[in-house]
Amino acid sequence: MSAEHAVIADVLVIIGTGAMGMSVARRMGAGRTIVLADIDEHLLAQVAEGLITDGHHVLKKTVDVTSRDSVADLAAFAGDAGRVVHLVHTAGLSPSQASAEAILAVDLLGVALVLEEFEHVMAPGGSGVVIASMSAHIIPPPDAAVEAQLATTPTDELLSLPACIEAMNTGPLAYPFAKRANVVRVAAAAKSWGRRGARINSISPGIISTAMGRLELDSENGQMMRAMVKSSGSGRLGTPDDIGAAAELLLGPLAAFITGIDLLVDGGVIAALRTGGFEQAD
């Protein structure tokens, strides 16, 4: 095929090799180039091989989302692979996996860097989804001044904000604070992404049966989490495909007028908490 008639690939970028991202890959990756990225080279190679065996076209790239240079390199790599039409950012750390400082670096700074660097390569009509967390809806929202700082502070200065330093020093609050900041940062990015004709949204999963979710269920918070599930309207754990389906909706044409929002996909846990339907475990 001559160069002038070469087909330019549509690219689906998935950052993080966990079950949620793989659900999106299998739902939306057929006929596209999947750029798969993770910090763990061994896991990256293993998951990429599984997708390739299933018939997908996969390019893999290691990335450290806490490094601007690494994220910018990934964005350029994806742009060189074709038209970047979809981005799904799932990489993150939970309280049972890391310190408060590491959580803020990966879950807050990492998201902000991805939003900023991928804005430059998204194709017109493209869309992205950031995975936040139901925990962002459990803690009280920050006051208006702090929320404005989280929305507008230059990315490289984010972790120096007094609110971020306080979150680092309060241990268990670091994770929900970072996820709340994700929701704010996505909302703020919607306008600049819109200038490229692209959309960006976040999803706040509830208690999902992923490796990370099961680790949290086995932690000291597990009893409370199970009580939340029992009290919810659905009465069950979520599956990675529940999140994959929500991401497919937000990434696709049916959501063409939806940008800058957070979609709570929790089976009704927050609804129960907010309306007095939560039943404390015995």
Features:
282 residues, alpha/beta, Rossmann fold, seven-stranded parallel sheet, 11 helices
Q: Any overview of this molecule?
A:
This protein has helices at 19-28, 41-53, 68-81, 100-119, 144-152, 162-169, 174-195, 211-217, 222-231, 240-251, 269-274, and strands at residues 10-15, 33-38, 57-62, 83-89, 122-131, 199-205, 262-265. Helices cover 46% and strands 16% of the residues. A 7-stranded parallel beta sheet has the order 3-2-1-4-5-6-7, with helices on both faces. α3 runs parallel beside α4 and α6 runs antiparallel to α7 (174-195). The protein is globular. α4 (100-119) links the parallel β4 (83-89) and β5. The protein is built from 11 helices and 7 strands. The mean pLDDT is 92. The chain is α/β, with parallel strands linked by helices.
How do the strands and helices of this protein lay out in sequence?
Layout: E1 10-15, H1 19-28, E2 33-38, H2 41-53, E3 57-62, H3 68-81, E4 83-89, H4 100-119, E5 122-131, H5 144-152, H6 162-169, H7 174-195, E6 199-205, H8 211-217, H9 222-231, H10 240-251, E7 262-265, H11 269-274
Parallel strand pairs: 1-2, 1-4, 2-3, 4-5, 5-6, 6-7
Task: Offer a concise description of the structure.
This protein is an alpha/beta fold and 282 residues long. It contains 11 helices and 7 strands.
